Amino acid sequence: MHKSISFLSAALVLIVLLNVFSVCHAQTARTRSLAPAGKALPAAPGKSGASEVPLSIFGDIEQGWKAGSVDGILGHFGKGKVALSISGAGPKGGYFSKNQSYYLFKDLFKYTITKKFEFTQYRNIHDGDRKVYAVAERQYKRRDDGRLYQDKIYVSLQRENERWVISEIKSVR
User: Fold this and answer.
1) How far apart are CA 111 and CA 89, in angstroms?
2) Domain spanning 47-172: which CATH class is it, in words?
């Protein structure tokens, strides 16, 4: 009986390890497929290296936008104003403080339903101190008329001392 329990335990551990490996492999393949032509992105954002920090920030923004979480986005604002021009969010565009942006995003998530928000392109990700940007595909419905809209969201990051912060978010149809 003791041998059969050990065998079952070993089999269970093997199954768990295979599942973990397949999930990690799928995430790595997805991340690498988003790389600009001729460049591979790092496999695991958030570990170490200059390009991984912007990738983890873009990941936070993507998750925050999908969840309608203002804090997931504003957590990456710096001390200065950010250029914002987003369809479905109040004014046509301008430079807004973190506090002003809070209310713009709060209204955006109140009056729209995000159906899709996914970063599909990254630029200058390996260039150290240059401005880094990513492009997301977004689909959303307005709550007032229920129509489905599609656009692209461009998010730029720049260095503020030792930290990457959002410098611009704009939508383009």
Assistant:
1) 8
2) alpha beta
